[in-house]
């Protein structure tokens, strides 16, 4: 059972590493600029020269899809980092309680009082659509869930013996939060962080599909919206290839998150799978 | 009941805070909405006229006061693109969004419940692992991508289903039934793509709560009393899982306005999601903010309703 679990963990992890490597080396895999028009005369099916064909303006779909891997990892990584950093407040709030805790809880209530994607769209419209803004918006709207988990874990950990004994020997609150509580909340938190990564990618693909993405980045969302036009002229390849890659990346991350959860929190499974 | 009353009071409070926040966002956003709306090269006199017409020349606190009272008395401003009151435009689009999402719920909840029960009863069997990989797949993929692929396969390539919209353009219907059939015809793909994604939650919740119930003491007691297996499954275990289904459905109904935006855009389904995209592309800020407020009111009211349903379904909530 144990080996089977770690084997599937390694499988999903290597899938992720492989995709990450594609993203990292995207410039080496294809020399064409994904956003440059006029490589071909217009919409064209896959050929020896253009593996995944070209879009209406003669852009190379293969190049866009490959560079899109990098964009997806950038967006996912940056907004997850922001989200994680803000969510650490959950530990502080859980540890100290009181006013800070109250404020944090009300703020999380507030962000949950509006559907997330509506707010993402509104903020992207109001504040413009640079990469930094998009990442800040996505990261800044997705921390509440994580913060709540961190807070709940901290609440249950802070009464445990090892925390109490750390306090008895005179550790400072910062030391306790950093070296006693933080490492111990990671098992329940990390799978959620991994899921946050894929959710951020989904959000970015969504807003760039709506034309609200960073115009200088070859995001899959924008290619998919071009593909939506192309299918009516028979250009299914413009739609299909980015969709396949996008599904592959999201599936890999989610499977990885599942396996991570199975490994870190074996007690949480039902029915002894 | 006092619990529900307390929650009822919270609704206007949440709306008040969201509207205030929305006002702050509007005011802190870079760029001048008036010149955006008027377009490039508009004369200063024209800009001044618009500013006056929308009360944007008044001090900011006064603007805030009239803004917030407006929201509460039903004056949500004027949509620049549709040239009608924002609230009217929103109310026109709501039925289509409700139709789409409730069609998706109508497919996803029964199927999800059935799949979940089957997976729980045949736990660790090939059926269970098939359903679980099915769930993992649709949990990872956004609904609009499923929608786009379905659109290509069934409408463009096979030509079986309409390309979008909610009814055939230019058709005079002979009867109400014909109109209804046409609507359902157009509803098929968007509802299916949403339903496939929404189903995942019900399947998982149902499987987990069912397994928990089947392993519980009261089910074991029922088995030892010799009660029929089907009775145990449907009367004892299933009934206890309903509450978690209600919770999940409540969350999904509440946040559905975010979930339908992209799917409605893909299928040109003229609901709220399509409307906000329209508002965004024309920089129609009053309409865009109106939809934001509407969706927060929607979330608050749905949450309240879920609480009431809880009280009805589960006596323990009422008593505590």
Task: Name the descriptors.
heterodimer; A: 273 residues; mainly alpha; MetI-like fold; elongated; B: 320 residues; 13 helices; globular
Architecture overview:
The complex is a heterodimer of chains A (273) and B (320). With 273 residues, chain A is mainly alpha-helical. Chain A has a single domain (2-269), classed as MetI-like (MetI-like fold), CATH 1.10.3720.10. Chain A contains 11 helices and no strands. In chain A, α3 packs parallel to α7, α4 (89-96) packs parallel to α7 (131-157) and α8 crosses α9. The longest helix of chain A is centred in the last third of the chain and has 37 residues, at 173-209. The mean pLDDT of chain A is 87. Chain B is globular. Chain B is 79% helix and 0% strand. Chain B has helices at 2-28, 33-38, 44-53, 60-73, 86-121, 126-140, 143-157, 176-214, 217-224, 229-266, 272-281, 285-313, 315-319. Chains A and B meet through α6, α9, α10 and α11 of A and α1, α6, α7, α8 and α10 of B.
Q: Cα distance, first to last residue of chain A? A: 9 Å
Shape of chain A: elongated
Q: Hey, which two chains have the biggest interface?
A: A-B, 44 and 55 residues
Number of strands of chain B: 0
Shape of chain B: globular
User: What is the level 1 CATH name of chain A?
Assistant: Mainly Alpha
What would you call the structural class of chain B?
Answer: mainly alpha
Sheet with the most strands of chain A? none
H and E string of chain B = HHHHHHHHHHHHH
CATH topology of chain A: MetI-like fold
What's the gist of this structure?
The complex is a heterodimer of chains A (273) and B (320). Chain A has 273 residues and is an all-alpha fold.
């Amino acid at each position: 059972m144990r080996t089977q679990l770690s084997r599937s963990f390694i499988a999903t992890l290597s899938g992720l590493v492989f995709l990450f490597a594609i993203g990292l080396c995207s410039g080496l895999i294809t020399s064409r600029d994904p956003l440059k028009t006029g490589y071909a005369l217009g919409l064209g099916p896959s050929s020896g020269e253009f593996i995944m064909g070209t879009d209406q303006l003669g852009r190379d779909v293969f190049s866009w899809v490959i560079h899109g891997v990098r964009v997806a990892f950038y967006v996912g990584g940056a907004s997850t980092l922001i989200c994680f950093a803000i969510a650490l407040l959950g530990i502080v709030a859980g540890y100290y309680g009181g006013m800070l805790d109250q404020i944090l809880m009300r703020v999380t209530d507030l962000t949950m009082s509006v559907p997330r994607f509506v707010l993402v769209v509104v903020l992207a419209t109001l504040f413009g659509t640079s990469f930094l803004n998009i990442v800040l918006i996505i990261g800044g709207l997705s921390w509440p869930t994580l913060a709540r988990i961190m807070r709940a874990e901290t609440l249950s950990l802070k009464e445990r013996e090892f925390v109490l004994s750390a306090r008895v020997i005179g550790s400072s609150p910062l030391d306790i939060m950093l070296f006693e509580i933080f490492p111990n909340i990671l098992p329940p938190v990390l799978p959620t962080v991994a899921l946050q990564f894929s959710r951020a990618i989904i959000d970015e693909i969504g807003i760039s599909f709506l034309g609200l993405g960073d115009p200088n980045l070859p995001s899959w969302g924008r290619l998919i919206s071009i593909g939506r036009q192309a299918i009516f002229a028979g250009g299914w390849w413009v739609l299909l290839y980015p969709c396949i890659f996008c599904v592959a990346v999201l599936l890999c991350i989610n499977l990885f998150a599942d396996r991570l959860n199975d490994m870190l929190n074996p007690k949480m499974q039902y029915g002894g799978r | 009941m006092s619990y529900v009353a307390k929650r009822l009071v919270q609704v206007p409070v949440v709306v008040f805070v969201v509207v205030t926040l929305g006002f702050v966002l509007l005011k802190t956003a870079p760029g001048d909405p008036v010149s955006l709306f008027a377009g490039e090269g508009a004369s200063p006199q024209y800009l001044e006229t618009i500013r006056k017409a929308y009360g944007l020349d008044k001090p900011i606190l006064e603007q805030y006061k009239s803004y917030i009272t407006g929201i509460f008395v039903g004056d949500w401003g004027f949509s620049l693109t549709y040239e009608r009151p924002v609230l009217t435009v929103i109310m026109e689009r709501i039925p289509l969004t409700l139709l789409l999402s409730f069609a998706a719920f109508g497919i996803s909840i029964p199927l999800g419940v059935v799949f979940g029960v089957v997976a729980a009863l045949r736990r660790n069997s090939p059926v269970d692992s098939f359903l679980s990989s099915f769930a993992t797949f649709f949990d990872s993929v956004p609904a609009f991508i499923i929608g786009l692929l379905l659109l290509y396969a069934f409408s463009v390539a096979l030509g079986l289903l309409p390309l979008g919209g909610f009814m055939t353009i230019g058709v005079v219907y002979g009867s109400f039934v014909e109109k209804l059939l046409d609507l359902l015809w157009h509803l098929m793909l968007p509802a299916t793509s949403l339903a496939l994604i929404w189903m995942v939650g019900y399947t998982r919740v149902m499987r987990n709560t069912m397994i928990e119930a089947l392993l519980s003491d009261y089910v074991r007691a029922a088995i030892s009393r010799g009660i029929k297996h089907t009775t145990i499954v449907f009367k004892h275990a299933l009934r206890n899982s309903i509450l978690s289904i209600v919770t999940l459905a409540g969350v999904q109904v509440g946040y559905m306005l975010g979930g339908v935006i992209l799917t409605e855009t893909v299928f040109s389904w003229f609901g709220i999601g399509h409307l906000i995209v329209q508002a965004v592309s024309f920089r129609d800020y009053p309409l865009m903010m109106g939809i934001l407020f509407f969706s927060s009111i929607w979330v608050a009211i749905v949450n309240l309703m879920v609480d009431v349903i809880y009280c009805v379904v589960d006596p323990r909530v009422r008593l505590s």
